[in-house]
Amino acid sequence: MLQLAIIGTNWISEKFAQAALQSEKYVIRGVYSRSLAKAQQFGAPFGAALFFDSIQALGQHEEIDAVYIASPNSLHCAQAIELMSAGKHIICEKPMASNLAEVERMFEVAKANNVVLMEAFKTAYLPNFIEAKKTLLSLGKLHKAHLTYCQYSSRYQKYLDGENPNTFNPAFSNGSIMDIGFYSVAAAVELFGAPSQVQASAHLLESGVDAHGSVLLRYPGFDVTLSHSKVSNSYSTSEVQGEEGSLILPDFSECNGFELQVRNGERQSVSVEQVDNSMMYEALAFAAAVEKGEMDTDATQRSLTIAKIITEVRRQTSVVFPADSE
């Protein structure tokens, strides 16, 4: 059993803690927060007994094997490097860091300290998404794909009211492409690999981050269009088109099922069994890598490719973070 500590006391940390326990691979031993009271309040229901308001103290504690990081994006790199240098394995919420340079540095530190570093991109590990990826082989030659993820942020009204929530604050390396848009980029990389060309556009808020945007990924013989937004909702499906048929994904991020529409008109719905807390599968994958004692090279390359694309998207759309100059 892995002795796990959690950084962050938000809803996603709670969901991952539940998933970790459900996987039966972890014991929740510790929680870090800037407030010890919040750490104790969060960790008590999960049986945590160790509480920290110092990353250094967390890293030095011998009873912690691994750490799940769900702090603001801008903090991921420094926290992960501090903890990996102390010998802790890290599963880090997406996006792994503010830019490609930080992600590269994080993997260098992981290798130097012989620990596992994994990005918490759950979609790639979902049973239905794995089945959907296999189905690509039946589509024939691919020509078009459209992946859309647009979700009105619960924090947007606060921004409109003149507040400065992390969600729309460049100081925290945030915005649409770093949050909602990540899923579309990451799913495209998992399905198709690294593109040969990236073209991006976005609409920026006065704060300097993108509210919504589009990305065109070019591959030999076909294009992938990505739509992302934190200021509007989308109810359309995502789709991959081939000469022999199309793969229809109603909600690829959770991927509770998909449909195959073949060229002759036949339509097949596919859904395999999948647990309700979809974060359990990434928790299992991380535990397996730690038990094996080495990082999954495909997952590592995926994270590097995603970071490269998103960094290029921000360059093209003029979204700049303080972390970019550090």
Automatic annotation (TrEMBL):
Name of the protein this chain belongs to: Possible oxidoreductase
Residues of the Gfo/Idh/MocA-like oxidoreductase N-terminal domain = 3-120
Can you name the source organism? Vibrio maritimus
**Matching InterPro entries:** Gfo/Idh/MocA-like_OxRdtase_N (IPR000683), GFO_IDH_MocA-like_dom (IPR055170), NAD(P)-bd_dom_sf (IPR036291)
Q: Can you provide one Gene Ontology molecular function annotated for this UniProt record?
A: nucleotide binding
Instruction: Please state every residue range assigned to the domain named GFO/IDH/MocA-like oxidoreductase.
Output: 139-247
